[in-house]
Amino acid sequence: MSEEKHHHFFNHHKKDEDQQPAGGEYGGGYSETVAVEAVTAGENEYERYKKEEKEHKHKQHLGEAGALAAGAFALYEKHEAKKDPEHAHRHKITEEIAATAAVGAGGYAFHEHHEKKKDHKEAEEASGEKKHHHLFG
């Protein structure tokens, strides 16, 4: 075990480990670089789809929170436009921008919701579970 070669990502080394000379065990003057795949070997299709479904659910919630925050800011600016007539035009413009951001964030949340549903369906198919057919939906 102690003779195994340890590979380090992005050329990071622990200081307490022994450093090999540039020639290493191959005798050349070049250092060895190793590329590692991001996907682990034990991860099957079902687990991958469930992980993607979880990621889409998280992104959907972020989109919903963004829509809520932008909508609240738009309502605040609408209130400020009525309260501060001297700068009403500026507040109305800011209100419209915030409302547009709220619609965009809502659309993003809607998109992620459908991606989550698609991944859920693919996970069911990958696991081989029996599909439940409902009468209404």
From TrEMBL:
Q: Where is this region: Disordered?
A: 1-30, 104-137
Query: Which GO terms of the molecular function aspect are on file?
Result: sequence-specific DNA binding
**PANTHER family associated with the record:** ABSCISIC STRESS-RIPENING PROTEIN 5 (PTHR33801:SF24)
Entry similarity comment: Belongs to the abscisic acid and water stress-induced protein family.
Its BP terms in the Gene Ontology are: regulation of DNA-templated transcription
Name the UniProt record assigns to this protein: Abscisic stress ripening
Specify residue ranges for compositional bias: Basic and acidic residues. 120-129
From which source organism is this entry? Answer: Setaria italica
